[in-house]
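Data availability (excerpt). All sequences and predicted token strings are deposited with the supplementary files. A representative entry, Polysaccharide deacetylase, is shown inline so that the format can be inspected without opening the archive.
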Amino acid sequence: MTDDQIWTPLRQELDRWRAAGCQARFWLRDDDATEPTDALETLLEVTRRACLPLTIAVIPASTGEALATRLSGEGHILVAVHGWSHANHAGPDEKKQELGRHRSADVVLGQLHDGLVALQGLYGPRLVPMLVPPWNRISEALVPQLGARDFKALSIFGRAEAGGPIRLLNTHVDVVNSRKQRGNRPHGDLVADLVAQLQARFAKDDEPVGILTHHLVHGASEWEFLTRLFQETGHHPGAAWMSARDLLG
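Structure token line:
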């Protein structure tokens, strides 16, 4: 199968949205930023060239003025709170978690609030008061308490359920990770994931499709996929890339 054939199903699905007078909404979240790196420069260049908005989840305990200064001139960038330190507090037989039940809620929520305040000081209006839990995992008991710590939204992975205690702006297609593979995911598999997400939303427009990236571990395959994805969707009348702030209203 040629590279062009790999992208045909996405093109056809977006054509279906256009024919129905609809636009599929997309948004982009990148995780684990702490400082300027060559990988970050590539991410900024790819998104800037495509003229699309990007939300970067920054780890408060590990960041500082250097990253804030580098991002200050990038008008297409917003920042979200990526936990506190991205430290794993789960046991060896559990999935990694920073925001689980392994510590007291007061300690965890206090650190999250400190992280929000720290990033507000660094980024001002560029910060979206949205929590991105490390590894996309958070104890259900903590979620209803986030609002009292000044968070307005939560972003994890998977379809969002309506009627929760806080707004959800989730991601759904992970460019790097799947249950079967870590890195170098076949582009055909990623396109199939995108098409499945769009088909589940057709004529409903109930939830934007969130694309999740991890710039620090991208190889050539991930950068090639993103570049082509932005080309295929950036000017298609059946697609619209939106910022987290616009989506949260």
